[in-house]
Amino acid sequence: MPRIIRQHWKVMLLQLGIVSVIIGLIVAATLDSEEALAQSQLVVSEPTHALDPATYTAVRKLRHELALTNSDLAAMGCSQADAERVLGALLVWYQSNKDSLEAKERLIRQDTRRLRELRRKIQIGTRDTSVARDVAALREQLVEKMAERKQLVEAAIPTVRNAVSVEQASYHESAIANQGLARELRFAPGLSKSQIEGISVVRNNNQFQTEMDRVLTYGQKLAIQQAAINQREKIRGAQLAERNVLPMPSQLLGEDNVRESMGQ
After folding, report:
1. Which of the two ends of the chain, N or C, has the fewest CB atoms closer than 10 A to its terminal CB?
2. 0.70 cut: is pTM over it?
């Protein structure tokens, strides 16, 4: 080691430490300014229209079926503006397809009531052997009508995905594909049948996490982690977007405004 370095190594280390601290402060200040900018871009505005309770309730149901709740939109990485475009597109789609959707739901309700009546007859011990055949036929008919409604609802997916980026659409694709699975898996892309079966059989929380770590790929884990980060950072914007585009009717405020205010 050169003599001059041996003599001044402590000074050099001190200078290097000072430089590191300065760089750390600069990075922290940059992150703080970016966070402040993101918060400043949130816009609280008065809703430009009022929704009737039936429309609000129907669209909220669609949002849950299509993985477009506030939490979902945030996890997808949607800004407030993105979320407003998605919700606006969904509202327009519903208004255009309202009659068809309501007609299918009306038939489903009718068949459901009729099926309930037939089952009641069986429970009380009817001697009419045709009732059992009617139940089987009606059940099959009901399944078909529910599938038709599901197909109509899923026709809204291209409309809402056109309102977001390719990356955001990929998160939404995962959420749709993973509906019914554990919440932790909601945004894992490309889950195979064996992965789902391996994780689904686990009941203990610790074992569940261990099994996720074992069977998920690096890319799937990364997507889940990023969705969690997005959700924390974007949830406020999604809530404001809902307030601006899909304001809760005053008639419903007393029923579940607490749940809505929490972004569900």
Report:
1. N
2. yes
